[in-house]
Design brief:
171 residues; mainly beta; 6-stranded parallel β-sheet
């Protein structure tokens, strides 16, 4: 069902039976224009503190009975969380850097943003690397404060320890 018409939920968010997205605040940065920008599987839970910073062409899938507890998803291509996966608090899944690698270019963009008034101050960062989908496998466990970088696959049943930065695939 489409988020049961809950106030503040985008129209292209699908939450299956028994699934939960605890707060509409999770969509403050959600901009996906895909037919289904977020799909939350049966019995999955997305708790408060989770944020979907999803770009216009990105799609996110949270598998059945998965749990996201205060997770940040930053996506410009796609992020997939497998069935029964467990993601602890302050985990970041990012399929894009959204910032140039060159520090001088980053500085220029940030200074440009500071010259704009009010809410328009959010920097318009343009990464110089394409987005690369992230996949978290079935029954994987990601420890608190971990960051999964663009293009990484964490395999089925894998465990990522707390405060890890994952830059390569985990079998």
């Amino acid at each position: 069902t489409v988020a049961d018409g809950r106030a503040g939920f985008p129209e292209n968010v699908v939450v299956e039976e028994g699934g939960l997205v605890e707060t509409a605040g999770s969509f403050d940065l959600f901009r996906s224009r895909e037919a289904v920008g977020l799909h939350v599987g049966r019995g999955a839970a997305v708790y408060a503190g989770s944020m979907f910073d999803v770009g216009p062409r990105a799609r996110v899938r949270v598998g059945a009975y998965a749990m996201l507890n205060g997770v940040w998803v930053i996506a410009d291509a796609g992020v997939e969380v497998g069935d029964y996966a467990l993601l602890s608090w302050r985990v970041v899944l990012m399929d894009t850097y959204r910032a140039p690698a060159d520090p001088l270019e980053r500085r220029r963009l940030l200074e440009e943003a500071l010259r704009r008034p009010g809410r328009d101050r959010r920097p318009v960062l343009r990464g110089d690397q394409p987005a690369a989908p992230v996949r978290i496998g079935r029954a994987a466990w990601i420890g608190f404060d971990s960051v999964i970088l663009p293009g990484v696959t964490v395999g089925d049943g894998a465990i990522v320890g707390a405060r890890s930065v994952v830059a390569e695939d985990v079998p």
